[in-house]
Amino acid sequence: MSATAQPTSEGQSPGDWTKDYPFTDLTLAPPRVEVERRDNGEVVLTNPVPLGDYPVQLSDDLRRHADTHPDRIFLAERGADGDWVPVSYAEARRRVDSISQWLLDNGHGPDNPIACLSDNSMRFALLQLGAMQVGIPFLPVSPAYSLMSKDFARIRYVCEQFTPSLIYAENLALFKPALDAVKPRAQLVAARSVDAMPGAVPFDDLVGATPGPAVEQAYARVGPDTIGKILLTSGSTGFPKGVINTQRNMCASHTQMTHVWPFLTERPPVICDWLPWNHTFGANWCFNMILRHGGTFYIDEGKPVPGKFEATLRNLRDVKITMLLNVARAYDALIPEFEKDDAFARHVFSDLDYIFYAGAGLPQGLWDRLEALSIKVRGKRTPILTSLGSTETGPPALVCHMSADVTGSVGLPLPGLVAKLAPAGGKTEVRFKGANICPGYYRDDKRTAEAFDEEGFYKIGDAVRWADPDVPEKGLMFDGRVAENFKLLTGTWVAVGVLRLDVLTHLTPLVSDAAVTGENQEQVGLLAFANIPACQAVIGEGGDALSPQEVVAHPAVHAALRERLAAYNKAHPGSSQRVARMLLMTEPPGIDAGEITDKGYLNQRAILDNRSDLAERLYGAEPGADVVIA
Questions:
Q1: DSSP class of residue 440?
Q2: Closest CA to 402 of 467, 498, 352
Q3: Residue 520, Cβ neighbours under 10 Å: how many?
Q4: DSSP summary character for residue 568
Q5: Which of 76, 308, 456, 464 supports an S-S bond with 303, CB 3.0-4.6 Å?
Q6: How far lies 374's CA from each of 154, 304, 336, 344, 379, in Å?
Q7: How far apart are CA 390 and CA 483, in angstroms?
Q8: Model confidence over 360-387: pLDDT tens digits?
Q9: How do residues 10-19 score in pLDDT, each as one tens digit?
Q10: Alpha-carbon distances of 375 from 21, 372, 402, rounded to whole Å
Q11: For the whole prediction, is pTM greater than 0.85?
Q12: How many CB atoms lie within 10 A of CB 7?
């Protein structure tokens, strides 16, 4: 069968034919795990490989690379003229030391963090390294708290709870409304529009300082337990928690990764990435991985959203990457661009070591299309890998280091980590203890105590199941969030995370995402976010002239979605999986309401709480024109 052919055998899934093609060569450690089964039903998993040595602090890697390959590009971003502006490892080390000196000279220290309000940038990267290497915690804050919020409640909470001594904004004018409202007691530093607020300091002053003995003295005081970053959670159950990332957590994490992914050490990685550094995926996986292995990080100023996605496409066409890392929502936007442009797909895929997704599950339909693209342009499958973790785990805890054929395989525990599988509400919750696990939450003893069980295992709240119970080496599969699952009126448990992924595979692209409903109801339903342009395309001529409300009520849209739901329900006939009805929403998820993060992750519980009136109407006797009945 050719690489572009489609399967015709009845019952064959869209991706079955790809299994005839080998994977590209990738050095992965053989999966190993020791299993202890307890009388109370718990299972303890340990990787028998001992954890190797790791640096004391992140800047040990920066200094090492500055010495061994000083001219290699560490970071690059687009300049005002649109060209890439690079900084080498040697130059980065010089600027970082200057920033450290300026911070020390101006009274900043370990008791109060340095906060950054802006998106990823060269200055962001250098400031965080300059702070952390002399023991000053770094606090990256989602720009959405300042730029997309209407009440500024979250940025006010951050300033009051964490009391940063310095706040950096790339363009101070953009953040002036939020800062005027909050009035933080902090020194302000900015790269642009410095005169927008009195007393603000130009960033150039920081890199203009001359490093002296104070930098080396402070550097030497930093140890494994020194706080490096404070990363904020999404705040899905209230205001965000500040996760303490010690130097040990961050440094151990990438030593753990080299044990299971030895290929990371075989050549310096190159990535072009937008994932925000105020989240652990972008901050600790992507950025710290490049720093550990002496790679190159092209800072993508784009995002997978209208108006910014074009920048991402231009950047990916302009550089040659070795790793493609992203969230599922971004692959949903990227794949059609690859499919319609063979040259673009070949440029991106031809030198990839692997494709990685995390944060939210990758629908099988997107997985299959990625494999088909790889086969088409290089004749082999590029491994698609993932991990399971959170801000509190470094982020990787379980890592897939076997060439998986289906989405959801999260692998096995890393060296230096112990995982506990605990029965929970009809599911199996996984918990973690190890060098990469955070010690708790900044200035929050109560929530720290709640996060760990009596044996000191961090309770992540994710459920897993064995890929093959008789062969532990085949690893674990993601099985949804324990807290998201609910019971139907019949008493049957609904596995929300798994169901959502399965049904989105069928509904894409007409539906961009959905929250699963049905608690204390007889049937499962969806509150679905309609992809208006895709729905307009289904309508055809005149569709683009209709309002969003007219689009989601259009018979052609309903017919297309009923057909997709019928296909899903045929494969999932059980009452806990079958979707009986779906309400199409036109109002996007709101960040102030906690419904979504700036990475595009949906908060199931917040959506159901905030839109309870829609859930009630979904199950009403007269549901309305925006409801699709399967």
A1: -
A2: 467
A3: 8
A4: H
A5: 308
A6: 42, 21, 14, 12, 7
A7: 15
A8: 678 888 899 999 999 999 999 999 999 9
A9: 334 545 667 7
A10: 7, 5, 19
A11: no
A12: 14
